[in-house]
Amino acid sequence: MSHLSAQMELGDKAVGFLLTLTSISIFTYYTFWVIILPFVDSDHFVHKYFLPQEYAILIPVLAGVVLLSFLSVFVGLVMLKSKKKKKSN
What we know:
Largest sheet: none
Keywords: Endoplasmic reticulum, Membrane, Transmembrane, Transmembrane helix
Shape: flat
Number of domains: 1
Subunit structure: Component of the dolichol-phosphate mannose (DPM) synthase complex.
Organism: Leersia perrieri
Radius of gyration: 22 Å
Strand content: under 5%
Number of strands: 0
Pathway: Protein modification; protein glycosylation
Number of helices: 2
Pfam families: DPM2
Helix content: over 70%
């Protein structure tokens, strides 16, 4: 049993490490894109690695709308299931 627990713990650490690395990468990319890139000349080669500035606002707004939509649907479904459980008891 202890061996299985150690394997799961190692897997959890790996997933946590990958999530942390992904979050740091996205944060660094977005920060550079929004804060530093506007001060770089528009003909500089680094601009080809980034989307136009309009997307710097559009992408987070759309992600927030999608997140809130899924969260609202989830809460609604949980409330419906809870109501059905109370009714059957």
